[in-house]
Amino acid sequence: MNTANFILREWQISDVISLAENADNINIWNNVRDSFPYPYSAKDAEEFITTASAKSKPATDLAVVVDGKAVGSIGIVPQPDVERFNAEIGYFIGEKYWNRGIISNAVKEMIAYAFANFPLQKLYASVFDFNLASQKVLHKAGFEREAILKLGAVKNGRFIDLHYYSLLKSQWRKSVKIRLLHDDELLVLEDLLYEAIFLPERAEPPSRDIIKVPEINNYIRDFGKKKEDQCLVAELNGKIIGGVWVRILADEIKGYGHVDAETPEFAISIFKEYRKLGIGSMLMKEMIKLLKDKGYAKTSLSVQKKNYAAKMYQKLGFEIIRENEEDYIMVLKLK
Fold first, then answer.
1. Between the chain's N and C termini, which has fewer beta carbons within 10 Å?
2. pLDDT tens digits, residue range 44-61?
3. Angle of CA points 49, 28, 3, to nearest 5°
4. Which fold has domain 7-173?
5. Residue 107 dihedral angles phi and psi, to the nearest 5°
6. Is the pLDDT of residue 86 over 70?
């Protein structure tokens, strides 16, 4: 997961020195559980990374990387038994990187990662009463304080209250905003188009130059110059995470899902880390509503038969009108 000033990725054994340098800090230890080592040695770092790397995938512990160095950690602990749809979230970052918004944004990215990759309905965190900075981080990420557990912990020989914060998946999804693409954001269509290319499992991704192929580039070339062009995007935390757009592709190079000269054709793309969260369905429903309001009789799309999205389209009312060896051509009647 790449952002403007940090990356979240799996731990590597080469991170040992940087992890130890940033974790060996009494001001960090004062705000975490006693099981977190202090002093924090290179041996502790190696043991943590080895354990984290040995866990089944997808990874539950990720490194917070700034300027190429792992300077913090963020992770979840899925719970067992009757709480198996819950997970605790925890994090820290080296003191040198405090008050830069890095960990706040890392938590937001981790929320999406957790809900996309694990069958979770709830994330939660317990924070010491004096750790106002961490409470603020959680609040900014959408967590709500659910309870205060009186004298729920002991730290440095003193009994303290625990502030219990939680975030439901259903609440988090409401923070995803569906809106029209702005004119100054048209370049994002190149990224969306590339991500829209379906890859079978374990297939190598194609070169990005593939979007220059005329039959593919047709979906974004000079977008917005035709009155039929419409694009909606999904925005989360100020960042575009997916989009759906329609065009009538009835010129010399027709769209893969072309039906006729009056029917707009769908294209949809969700960036990889935000898939399996229902965002595609949200975008599709909003675009269908927009097309109905504009008076279109029907809309179409093309989808590869191996693409799991085909089932989503059918749930939305699309019907197969023809097929070839690899693709279904589907139509949704709007009137």
1. C
2. 999 999 999 999 889 999
3. 65
4. Aminopeptidase (3.40.630)
5. -65, -45
6. yes
The one-letter amino acid at 49: I
Q: How many CB atoms lie under 10 A from the CB of residue 157? A: 5
Q: Cα–Cα distances in Å, from 306 out to 68, 198, 249, 303?
A: 37, 9, 24, 8
Instruction: Please tell me the predicted confidence (pLDDT) of residue 204.
Output: 87
pLDDT tens per residue, range 175-219: 999 999 999 999 999 999 999 998 777 778 899 999 999 999 999
For residues 60 and 76, is the Cβ–Cβ distance under 8 A? yes
Q: Mind listing the pLDDT tens digit for each residue in 229-262?
A: 999 999 998 899 999 999 999 988 999 999 999 9
Cis bond leading into 206, ω under 30°? no
CA distance linking residue 246 with residue 229, whole number of Å? 6
Extract the tokens encoding 138. 């959680």
User: Quick check: 103 and 64 in contact, CB under 8 A?
Assistant: yes
Fold of 177-333: Aminopeptidase (3.40.630)
The Cα–Cα gap between 198 and 310 comes to 12
For the chain, where do the domains classified as CATH 3.40.630.30 start and end?
7-173, 177-333
Q: Residue 311: count other Cβ atoms within 10 Å of its Cβ.
A: 10
The pTM (predicted TM-score) of the whole model is 0.83
